[in-house]
Amino acid sequence: MEKLYHIQLDDSHGAKYAILPGDPGRVEKIASNLKNARFLGQNREYTTWIGEIEEEPVLVMSTGMGGPSTAIGVEELFITGVTNFIRVGTCGGMHIDVKGGDLVIATGAIRMEGTSKEYVPIEFPAVANLDLTNALVNAAKDKQYSYHAGVVQCKDSFYGQHSPERIPAGYELMQKWDAWIKANCLASEMESATLFIVSQILGARSACILNTIWNQERAKKGLDDPHSHDTSRAIEVTIEAIRQLILQK
After folding, report:
1. Exposure string (b/e) for 112-144, b if CB count within 10 Å is 16 or more?
2. Distance separating alpha carbons of residues 85 and 206, to the nearest angstrom
3. Long-range CB contacts (within 8 A, 24+) of 175-178
4. Angle CA 224–229–232, to nearest 5
5. 192 and 154 in contact (C-beta within 8 Å)?
6. Which of 47, 179, 189, 193 is found 20 to 30 A from 112 (Cα to Cα)?
7. What is the predicted pLDDT for the residue at 161?
8. pLDDT in tens, 82-94
């Protein structure tokens, strides 16, 4: 097949699994955990490496920030033969128990972004695949890392979250943020809902694991609010989860 327009990949890679960070700068770091890792290509926000886990090819491809580029990346990877997607990203904590450095494994996502609405009506839930999610939970347990599993909020506006008072629609953003807090939402990020919905529509499997950078709700209450930009634990858990899934075949 010809290389696809946006990701500039064809089906010659042979991979069924793809690890999806948002940041292109994180791709090589993740790929360094794979056997025989090598650079595969780069176009726009899509930087791709390939390596092996248990002798099976695994892609690592960045998706950029937000839903539209995530949707395009997943759609085109699926065309090339990928059927399992795990997002490795970052988030801001919302639930008071979620601290910087904790892992958040998203079981579902609040669809407060726009991309998924162009796939299926808003009443349809954005839910992670159970097998992939359980593999992430089991790997986090095996490594004895602090983690939380549950619902996350997926948004389009980063600054709408952090300075809603200056946004004309801020009244709505603040009211809904309060609703998600009351509903025990764990964390906020920008890609999970799109990933879950697009995968569902395609008949693929997807999951999401996030490193918590900080928690503004803890800061508001004067609680300890450690900051952590280190995604190493989320990467380790993802690699181990894929290993378990491959060995179970």
Report:
1. bbebbeebeeeeeebbbbeebbbbbbebbeeee
2. 5
3. 176/112
4. 115
5. yes
6. 47
7. 86
8. 999 999 999 999 9
